[in-house]
């Protein structure tokens, strides 16, 4: 008997959509419930990044899902969604605490209706507590979790990470929790309440750094360091350095081999110092040695002496990276005659990447087929669209059709 996880998703922005994309890539049937005019990520895409009117933000985290556009404030809309949930294994939402409760779609209500249901929530700071009602967004949680304070250094001070890493990690953690709950459900028939938050994800990202920090006696100013040093808890030269023609990073390296690779008397004179206690001094000496050198010459010497290093690549260089190409890190798709480049699923299964089955370019792109699966067709479907209960792509004059 074929077993396929069925998911009803009330998710927008990134944390929830990332979670459900991981599940959809792995074969789950995911129905994305959207307002008639579509979820937030359809209408905002940073950097004005659209392909033929389709949001790149939406495409980044909604692969392999079906879209049902429905007005949840109408009783008929809620009844349709409840019928879908009756057939589902999992409900996932990432609204602020209490939003779905007010619509009669909260965890307690749905789990009373269906005790075997897995109900997963992804919030900003958690479902309860003194800050639960505060806005939860990636940059805010980078700040609150200590990640920004721990990043950067020197006179530049704290620095934000250049991508929504907390959102993405939060989505991956929630997918992991759902899969664990699904295994339990298959074994026992019991449902589970799964809860994740951006705040927890931001903290979890730093589990090594935080554990080390709280073990350090006399901590406090450990974040203060030369701008080259990449973390507060590594010995120099760990960090980022400018060359004549690019930037590179140096990872954990033996100071004797590094001095030999650079044939540097200045570094040989420092190879016996405590490179944590005097990390700024050592990092500045390394920076001075590296600044006049070019990457090609330096990389050859570093490889010969087993020095761990990499060139700092921009996004264009990443796209051309032979290893990224070999790994099939990106996938090109057609978007109404245009082209978009997506990041592929990060795992392989028996050597293969998950297939790209579909992309819901429009809110409600699958409304008709989803409702047909519930036996709602013909005049009944027409009435739902006419009355603005269900949205479908097509005639923008119809009340139930998302307006562009």
Secondary-structure map with pairings?
Layout: E1 6-10, H1 15-25, E2 29-34, H2 40-43, E3 50-51, E4 54-55, H3 56-60, E5 66-70, H4 75-86, E6 90-93, H5 99-102, H6 107-113, E7 118-123, H7 138-144, H8 147-150, H9 165-188, E8 192-197, H10 198-204, H11 207-215, E9 239-242, E10 247-250, H12 255-262, H13 265-268, H14 279-290, H15 295-304, E11 309-311, H16 315-320, H17 322-326, E12 330-335, E13 338-343, H18 367-373, H19 378-386, E14 390-391
Parallel strand pairs: 1-2, 1-6, 2-5, 6-7, 7-8
Antiparallel strand pairs: 3-4, 5-14, 9-10, 10-11, 12-13
Helix pairs in contact: 1-9, 9-10
Task: Give the gist of this structure.
The chain is an alpha/beta fold and 404 residues long. It has helices at 15-25, 40-43, 56-60, 75-86, 99-102, 107-113, 138-144, 147-150, 165-188, 198-204, 207-215, 255-262, 265-268, 279-290, 295-304, 315-320, 322-326, 367-373, 378-386, and strands spanning 6-10, 29-34, 50-51, 54-55, 66-70, 90-93, 118-123, 192-197, 239-242, 247-250, 309-311, 330-335, 338-343, 390-391.
